[in-house]
Design goal:
Elements (H helix, E strand, L loop, with lengths): L6 E3 H8 L3 H9 L6 E2 L5 E4 H15 L5 H17 L5 H4 L2 H18 L2
Antiparallel strand pairs: 1-3, 2-3
Length: 114
Amino acid sequence: MTQRDELFFISMAARELGMHPQTLRKYERLGLVQPTRTIGSVRVYSRNEIDRLRLIKRLVDDGGINLAGVQRLLDVAEVVRRMRPMMSDATLGRQVGRRRLARELEHLIEVLGL
């Protein structure tokens, strides 16, 4: 099992992050994270989700950003992540690639509220 395959129960995740389990539950209710559930409905966090929670904590604690702002930043980051592979010359040279990129740009504008 690699470090990326690690799974954390909510108490373990909270301890690793220096957060209260209730905070993790709140972030889930707000849609900031989506832990997997076991058959018994126990929350299980992957290493990627722990990294996402660490980013959220940094944005809130160090950046002074409220949770609504954090959600917006995460949405923007997701659009940018999808756009990156579309920026190659080969993709931009194809009509379908330009259309996909245009849709993502429109989505970005929508997420930003512009």
